[in-house]
Amino acid sequence: MEKSQYNLCIQIFKKFEQAGVLSQLILIGSWCVVFYEDYFKNSTALRNFALRTRDVDFLIENPAKMRVNVNIPDLLKDMGFVVSYSGRQGYMKLSHTDLILEFLVPEKGRGVDGPVDLPGLGMNAVALRYLNFLTENTIQIKVEDFIITLPHPANFALHKLIIGQRRIKQDKAAKDMDAAVCVLKTLIANNQLTLIHDVFNKAPVKWQKKIIEGLKLTGDRELTLQIIKF
Amino acid sequence: MRGVIKGVLAEELENSLRMQKDYESALHKLPQGCLVRKSIHGHEYYYIVKRQGKHIGYLYQGKSSPDDIKKYKEAKDLRAKYRNALSKLKKQIKFLKGALRGKEPI
Predict the structure, then answer these.
(1) Diameter of chain B by CA atoms?
(2) B60 in a domain, yes or no?
(3) Which domain holds residue B51?
(4) Chain B neighbors of A51, CB-CB under 8 A
(5) Other C-beta atoms lying within 10 Å of the C-beta of residue A140
(6) B52: which strand partners?
(7) Rounded to two decimals, what is the model's pTM?
(8) What is the ipTM of this complex?
(9) Which of A102, A111, A117, A209 has the fewest CB atoms within 10 Å, counting from its CB?
(10) Could you tell me if residue B105 is inside a domain?
(11) CA B83, B14, A33, A94 torsion: positive or negative?
(12) Number of CB pairs, chain A paired with chain B, less than 8 A apart
């Protein structure tokens, strides 16, 4: 990972912290792996898993409950971020040559057509299925002088196994599966297999089936047996 | 199927191309020219200096408000950042296109 990317990411966290937004956001996506290194302390497997895009995704558990009024595009303007819109429905992203920020919310009920407005942040968000799996069990990590919230690595990995099957692009699916395997193996190496079982057992039966299917797709028989044998 | 690495690179190329358009559009939206102060017979007047074809033109603004001065100062800083970003993006695009040209499914 480029140091400039990491430094920029830290600067963004600082800005969010100063604006009082950081505590209401959960960092998800492949950038979590960077901070899981701190959680596992000296995990070489995670350090070697360096494949990630510039996308930094922030999850908002319940946008209706957000009590902030900060214009994120204005907040990050002086850092050189520009607003870009993707898709016909105009999903907002904040782009920089080193990082791209996006906001996500869990999709509930019948789902929504188009982006979800975040008036308190001056942004909109993408609503996606299965994201509440990440909000159910979170950890907090101290980075420099502030605290960031991440999904627990077990939830992160099992979620990747589910969404990997929903990807249209096969290479993205393979990347999700690789990340899941890497984090699961690190959890097992750190004696947290029972924790994976707990997270698995708490998931709805349909999701459990999807996780098992995902595990089979990884082709890692030993890992699959370790997780589903209990 | 293309490999995972090529998939990531292709996604990044797509991002860089989109970003290039976004930065060009943001650059275009900034107020053109630079606000300069001139002192004439002890009085201060402001001019917008901007290129007009081959020439550099000075457009008289009179006594600009602090808001205008701030607006042009911000625009100047942002213009430098956006131009720097565009230069970086051009290099990224060149590199990514080159990396994706290979036929190996990495």
Answers:
(1) 74
(2) yes
(3) 4-100
(4) 4-5, 8
(5) 10
(6) B55
(7) 0.87
(8) 0.80
(9) A111
(10) no
(11) positive
(12) 63
Does residue B45 lie within any of the structural domains? yes
Nearest CA to A170 out of B100, B13, B1 is that of B1
Residue B76 domain flag:
yes
Q: Do A82 and B4 touch (CB under 8 A)?
A: no
Instruction: For B65-80, give one letter per residue: b (16+ CB within 10 A) or e.
Output: eeeeeeebeebeebbe
Whether residues A171 and B78 touch (CB distance < 8 A) is answered with no
The total number of structural domains in chain B stands at 1
CA distance B68 to B35: 9
B29 residue type, one letter? K
First and final CA of chain A: distance in angstroms?
Answer: 37
Chain B contact probe: residue of A4, A97, A167 with most B CBs at under 10 A:
A97
- What whole-number distance in Å separates Cα of residue A100 and Cα of residue A84? 10
- Closest to A169 (Cβ–Cβ): which among B7, B82, B92? B7
Helices (H), chain B: 4-29, 66-101
> Over its length of 106 residues, how does chain B's per-residue pLDDT go in tens digits?
567 888 889 989 999 999 999 999 999 999 989 999 999 999 999 999 998 889 999 999 988 788 889 999 999 999 999 999 999 999 999 999 998 887 666 5
